[in-house]
Amino acid sequence: MRKHGFLLIGLILFFACGEPEPRRPVQARSGSFIAESVARSKKILEQEQKQIQGIILNDSLRTYFSSPYGFWFYYEVKQDTSGYTPKTNDIVWLSYNLMTFSRDTLYKTEDFGLVQHAVDKSQLLPGLRNAVKLLRKGEKATFLFPSSQAYGYRGDNNKIEPNQPLASSVSLLEIQKDSSNIN
């Protein structure tokens, strides 16, 4: 009996000491989620661009400009074109509001107050970070941001819905040049 017990234990140990086998994932990801997300984002951007083009076509009173950052704008107050536009690390003071494309106000200028912003450093929404670089001191412009330049797929969990494009009227009140930007 003892001999059979040792043989049984020996066999168990022999088969138990094989090569370790790596664990396989429970679910394999095919990458289709990312591909679907990219396709969905492209479709949303295309729809928002059509919406912006519709606004521009229906507004014969204003001249709209396309920015290199992927949004459109028109000037409400324009200064001499020889003025300085903010550069990285400059400090600017601005005021702005946020509206829907149908001009319903979501947040008033008073809701944000006077905003001090370090150019390319502060936590403004992407469109605003780039919009201030297009303005000169004393200028005011209204910007039409696709949702990717605004709050994106998340919204702000308050008044701004997910994937909501926004309009914003921005006034650049003051520019403090960074020492590296002084010629």
Account of the protein in words:
By secondary structure, the protein is α+β, with helices and mostly antiparallel strands. The protein has a single domain (40-181), classed as Chitinase A, domain 3, CATH 3.10.50.40. It is 28% helix and 22% strand. Strand 4 and strand 5 (105-107) form a beta hairpin. The longest helix is centred in the N-terminal third of the chain and has 27 residues, at 32-58.
Helix/strand/pairing category: alpha+beta
Trace the largest sheet across and list its strands. 1-2-7-8-3-6
Unreliable segments of 5+ consecutive residues = none
CATH architecture: Roll
The overall pLDDT, averaged over residues, is: 89
Q: Characterize the main sheet.
A: 6 strands, antiparallel
The CATH C-level name is Alpha Beta
Summarize the structure.
By secondary structure, the chain is of the alpha+beta class. It is built from 4 helices and 8 strands; from the N terminus they run ααβββββαβαββ.
Secondary-structure blueprint of this entry?
Elements: H1 2-16, H2 32-58, E1 65-66, E2 72-77, E3 91-96, E4 98-99, E5 105-107, H3 109-112, E6 115-118, H4 126-131, E7 140-145, E8 166-176
Defining key terms:
183 residues, alpha+beta, Chitinase A, domain 3, six-stranded antiparallel sheet, two-stranded antiparallel ribbon, 8 strands, 28% helix
